[in-house]
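Closing statement on the zinc ion sub-project.
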Amino acid sequence: MIEKYRVVPDQIIKEIALSRRLPLNHYLQPTLKSSINIGKAGYKGEKEVDYYLELLPNDKFRIFQGIRLPRDSYFFQMDNLILLPEFILIIEVKNIEGTLFFDQEHNQFYRISRLTKERQKMNDPFKQVKRHRKQLFQWMAKHGFPLVPIEYLVVNTNEDTLFDSSGNQHDMFEKIIHSEYLLEKVYKLEQKYQKEYLNDKDLRKLSKQLLKADTPLIFDIRQFYKFDDADLIKGVRCPQCNTVPMTWYKRAWQCDKCKHRSKDAHKPALHDFFLLISPATTNLKCREFLKCDSTDTIRYLLKSMNFKTKGIKKGMQYTLSFPPSQILK
Ligand SMILES: [Zn+2]
């Protein structure tokens, strides 16, 4: 069963919001575009692996599609975590292109480009997942769980990638596989482990504790990109022709250019405000951001959106009552 479903990373959601609120010729646009593309490709790869993992028998496999756990003063994030009575499996998702080559003599990984055949040194693709394995052992011990075998796999979602090595020992290539062989590999591991380490009660308890400890990364976009609020394009965007701003006229937003009218075009604009400027807003700040002078109109719009409120009158603060990952829907 899926204990935790994957959500779109906070970073991508916020970067997309920033990109659409900055002028097309803004100096941050190329960096944002590249980062959004990398983020989307990573997310797509993870979803591809989710597709296979969701085919596993529901009653036996407890799957966490991405989980981030605290360990002392830092966190460690696993792309997939699977619990079974006999063992635990961590799966990292990578997208390595060309040929992954291991030079056994020098204990060094290389990526060989398909086009230029150029050899480029690369980090050990197993290093991160091995570290996660160690951290999970420690986390479980700290929370009083028995010592359970923890296996790991690296799934490469680029199916054209070749794996090669300079020697005869191909052990590590047992641990890195293409996604289409993932289920076969998981069933093989299942056969390898016969002894039960976690009973039903342990598994339920472990799942509960993992979900409780899970702390998704909140991306601080203001700190990261250090953009100037004055550069942000303010106003409600026309859903028909993209013109900013629309004008509130006769109880709806109206586009000055194409005359399109909308009752809820302010919603994406307010979401952008929460994602980019502050997690809380006031009537005044909304008037500025939505480019609408009427206090009553803004109060009416905010009231219709089911925000959490704090304070009274002019000082009333509105905050999101749902996670930003739902905004994209
Ligand atoms: Zn328009």
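The longest strand covers residues 88-94. With this model delivered, the sub-project is considered complete and its resources will be redirected to Aim 3.
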